[in-house]
Amino acid sequence: MKCPNCGAEMKKDALYCEQCGEDIHIVPDFEPELDDDIQQTIKSIADDIWEQDDSKERLSAETQEPQSKRASYRKWIIFAVVLVVFLSLGVAGGVSAYLYFSVEYQTDRARECVEDGLYDRAVRHYTRAIELDESNVNLKVELAEVYFFKNNKIEYEYLLRQIAMDENATAEQVESAYGKLIAIYRARGDYQTINDFLLASENENVLATYQNYVATAPEFSVKAGSYNSIQPLKLTASGSGRIYYTLDGSDPDENSTLYTTPILLERGDYLVKAYFVNENGISSDIAAAEYHIIIEKLPDPEISVVSGDYNIPMDIAVVNVVADIYYTTDGSNPNVTSTPYTGPLHMPLGESVFRFICIEDGRTSDVVERTYRLNLNTNVSTADAEGIVVAYRMRTGRILDEAGHFDAGNSDMYKYQYQYVTNINGVGDYYVIAEILRSRDGTSTRTGSYYAVGAYGGELFRLQIDNNNYKLVAIEETQE
User: At a CB cut-off of 8 Å and minimum separation 6, what does 83 contact?
Assistant: First the structure.
């Protein structure tokens, strides 16, 4: 079959030309049954007329009727037959035209064809019925089923989409169409089409039923704009999946930062972009918001010890405590979730990096960083100091072996661990060793007993600690 508009070859039973989009209208045909009835009626009329004509001809021969009169009579008979034929054809055409414009007739014939397995003819009748009654969604549903029986996936899917978007469709018809379409796309593994299709829907029941197939852009807990305090920004998305974001205005992808905790927007300008990838691998649109955090800066923390190399232990203190102070030693920038500063800190052995910040009512200072390298001029190591305490506790019967066991039938142990090195009351530099009870379940608890070991000579003392006050107590080696 060729398109009457552009001449392109078309598929059999196609409703429109795939080349130019021209609609193909079905030309009404006489129904075979109706045509047979008309032909039989005309034949019967003609036979009756010719039979009457033969009778009259025999009669005229008997009565010697004039030849001219018989000829005139025959002409009238022929005219009558022709008139009857034309009238019959007119009636037939009128009936056929009436049936062509009858939704009920076209629908009944379509259903009869379906029952007889004549799916191509059923398609023609359903198509005509829909042309006559475009708002009848039931006809579209029935036609879609015919295309399903014909295994015509393209037309089947096309009709389901029409039904899903038809404002005349009932809720049941819409939800059924969505369910069938999603089953088709899911079988193909085409989850992105499912996502796009559902996002175009305004049906809340459908969206609620198939929300796991939808990837909507993340929502921001803080509106875009200017603020004069730190803003904790939360990103949320419906369904299970992952959120990725950037803070520099670049488009995020799966190599960007994975959102796990609220983003602290501190002083400065931010262009936050984020998108959501659900558990089916469907990506949402990118959400974006711009923030300007304008905060009056607090004074920077003043640290008592400058960065540098040291060979004696130093205590690190903040001189100007004007607000809450937080610090880190792992190289990260401190914030309100970092360790709060409560008093002087002991400089660790080896290299260490301290970062401090002041925070109050959403205002912050700049981050202050100090780097220290502490190396004592001694041959007594921290391990030596721990060993000195262990040996002492074995001699006094506190523990049975170097592992720290104190009861042969018990797997609990006392451990003696180095804490820090510090100068005590100007007397000297000492390693501070804590006694720790390690239970069989792996938990560790400080017993409250401390020891001080001379950093240069290995002298051993009990150590009493009250806040930041230290007292050295001489050792008396008595059996416990």
Answer: none
Mean pLDDT of 254-275: 93
Could you tell me if 455 and 421 are in contact, meaning their C-beta atoms sit under 8 angstroms apart?
A: yes
pTM of the prediction? 0.45
CA-to-CA dists, residue 453 to 311, 330, 372, 477, angstroms: 17, 28, 23, 15
CA 357-358-360 angle, 5° bins: 145
Count Cα atoms within 13 angstroms, Cβ side, for 179. Answer: 8
Where do runs of H (alpha helix) occur along 251-327? Answer: none
Tell me what percent of the residues of the chain surpass a pLDDT of 90. Answer: 48
Closest CA to 173 of 209, 208, 136: 136
**Where is pLDDT greater, at 79 or 355?**
355
**How far is the C-alpha of 472 from the C-alpha of 301, rounded, in Å?**
33
**Whats the size of the chain, residue-wise?**
480
- Of 137, 136, 139, which is closest to residue 124 (Cα–Cα)? 139
Cβ-contact 458, 388 below 8 angstroms: yes
Q: Which two tokens stand for residue 357?
A: 């910040």
Other Cβ atoms less than 10 A from the Cβ of 437: the count is 16
Tell me which of 77 and 107 has the higher pLDDT.
107
Distant-in-sequence, close-in-space partners of 468: CB < 8 Å, separation ≥ 6 = 343, 344
Other CB atoms within a 10 A radius of the CB of residue 235 amount to: 21
Q: Which residues have CB under 8 Å from 148's CB, separation 6+?
A: 156
Residue 123 class from Cβ within 10 Å (0-12 exposed, 13-18 middle, 19+ buried)? buried
Range ranked top by mean pLDDT from 18-22, 27-31, 76-80: 76-80
State whether the Cα torsion 52-58-64-70 is positive or negative: positive
Rounded Cα distance, 180 and 194, in Å = 11
Distance CA 247, CA 233 (A): 12
To which residue do tokens 């829909």 refer? 130
Q: How far apart are CA 124 and CA 117, in angstroms?
A: 14
pLDDT of 463 higher than 70: yes
Give a three-class secondary structure readout of 64-106. CCCHHHHHHHHHHHHHHHHHHHHHHHHHHHHHHHHHHCCHHHH
Average pLDDT over residues 141-169: 89
Cα–Cα distance measured from residue 454 to residue 422, given in angstroms and rounded to the nearest whole number: 10
